[in-house]
Amino acid sequence: MNFLCSYFAICLTLLVTLGYVYVKRKYSYWQRHKIGFIEPKFPFGNLRVIRRTEHLSQRLARFYIERKHDAPMLGIYFMLSPILLITDLELIRHIFIKDFQYFRNRGIFYNEKHDPLSAHLFNVDYEKWRPLRSKLTPTFTSGKMKFMFGTIVAVADEFVACLNRSIQIDSEMEVNEWLGRFTTDVIGTCAFGIECNSLKDPQAKFREMGRKVFDQPKLNTFERMLIMSCKSLAKLLRICTHHKDVTDFFLNIVNETIEYRENNNVQRNDFMSLLIELKNAKNDTDRLTINEIAAQAFVFFLAGFETTSTTLTYCLYELALDKHKHIQDKARQEIVTVLDKHNGNLTYEAINEMTYIDQIINETLRKHPPASNLARMATSNYKLPNSNYTVPEGMMVIIPVYGIHHDPEIYENPEKFDPNRFTPEQIQQRPSCTFLPFGEGPRNCIGLRFGMLQARIGLVKLLQNFEFSTCTRTQIPIKYSPKKLVLSPENGVWLKITGVKN
Ligand code: HEM
Ligand SMILES: *[C@@H]1O[C@H](CO)[C@@H](O)[C@H](O)[C@H]1NC(C)=O
Ligand SMILES: *[C@@H]1O[C@H](CO)[C@@H](O)[C@H](O)[C@H]1NC(C)=O
Ligand SMILES: *[C@@H]1O[C@H](CO)[C@@H](O)[C@H](O)[C@H]1NC(C)=O
Ligand SMILES: *[C@@H]1O[C@H](CO)[C@@H](O)[C@H](O)[C@H]1NC(C)=O
Ligand SMILES: *[C@@H]1O[C@H](CO)[C@@H](O)[C@H](O)[C@H]1NC(C)=O
Ligand SMILES: *[C@@H]1O[C@H](CO)[C@@H](O)[C@H](O)[C@H]1NC(C)=O
Predict the structure, then answer these.
(1) What separation in Å is there between the alpha carbon of 117 and the centre of ligand 3?
(2) Domains, in order of start, for the chain
(3) How sure is the predictor about 453, in pLDDT bands with cuts at 50, 70 and 90?
């Protein structure tokens, strides 16, 4: 008995010691490579996974601001893995554009066989990404945007009518939820070619699925750590990143839509008809399967609705503040002036003439970027310019977008909301890679044009018909939710909405 006890004690001590040495060794990586770093704490390193008190991007922004003058990069740890935080604009330009060939992936876990929706453009690795991106790029040209313009305007008109009915009952409302319904309907209509009617019916299936994807993550903390730190094991365990009902819903809807359109010879001005063209491509190598189409339509939905609706939410919040009343008035004045020129018709050309609206949206994207940090994975060893350090294949690098957008050396007085930062003269004075809401380089946001168009139409229609101001329930200053991936307001945004007085 005694013998057994001491035997276990020795084993335990040995294990603990070994574990300690292992962790110590892991956490000495940056020191050994003579790269400035931040002291990690076991087990999370420098980035907490649970019980965060601030958004990840705000923490990275602090690291960036504090250490950017020391070196072009800073070593941090996620769990036991070393990650490189890039703090120099020139090096960021290298990674995004000039040396893209070394940083082709995001390093996100996906599993095409067991979780078909996860194999979409945002996630997939280079070999699959390259042909897919070139097939999908023609879907987003300005010609195609003009094509879809009328569809978006029709959804926006519906939105205005709904909102108008609602404010007759109560003029104070939470706008994030409303804008989420608007962008859900736009993407549902344009990507899936169905009218999802979440505007009329708040419980609509599409909206429910969209909320589920963002608000109820499928994976628990352990599974999330596993897919981030041990992808091959996660694949072996057949971990799926989407709920079964979400997967079934989207696969079915795409299947039904395709069947319906092919049987009834339906042609529409939307993403789905362009995707169907790819399904039937003459050339084998160009062809997409139904599952591939579903995954791409799904990512358009995923990447398109939450980013755009939070952008519009922040935009209305800023315009509603008392101190920004003059900005709201000036925007409305521009809309009136341009529309007068176009006989009151909101056309594609008219929208393109509203430059102040564009400046307001860009300033919103600067101050509150929905995608507030960006990542790339080294796809082969990369020797950093002007340094003796080589980034090893497989290492993640992070670009602190929120930090750059709030850097007082780039944007003077960064907490101030000032659309004049986006006049052509001001833009020209800033170096490249200082405005990154859509990322940069060959792997930037493919939906940039569509996202901007949708945001502009939404904002124009809203300002044309309503006035926005704060109310007692408005949280000032706005607080970000520490948990969500997309930078989102903690408790929504409550505003007072009234019809415009003519
Ligand atoms: C205001 C709206 C939007 C914002 C702020 C936004 C932002 C971003 C960002 C930051 C990235 C990563 C870029 C990088 O890593 O360099 C991205 C990628 C992507 N976005 Fe968007 N996006 C928006 C709207 C949309 C829309 C409307 C769609 C589709 C209809 C879309 C589809 C995608 C796709 C497919 C990717 C992955 C591209 C690739 O890896 O090749 N986005 N977006
Ligand atoms: C909103 O509703 C009111 C009252 O029903 C109506 O007078 C007004 O024209 C409507 N405004 C819009 C933009 O539909
Ligand atoms: C849709 O699903 C059904 C049943 O699973 C299948 O028979 C059919 O071929 C699918 N449609 C298309 C267009 O693939
Ligand atoms: C299919 O496309 C590939 C690459 O675009 C090309 O090399 C090949 O010749 C094409 N095949 C046919 C049958 O057109
Ligand atoms: C608005 O545009 C449409 C189509 O572009 C045109 O048919 C209509 O006459 C225009 N209305 C006005 C008032 O100019
Ligand atoms: C706003 O940002 C978008 C995306 O970077 C760009 O295409 C557009 O020209 C910008 N507009 C202004 C007025 O800065
Ligand atoms: C790289 O290493 C060499 C030799 O050890 C040293 O002379 C040089 O200063 C180092 N360069 C940088 C940028 O640290």
Answers:
(1) 17
(2) 33-499 (1.10.630.10)
(3) very high
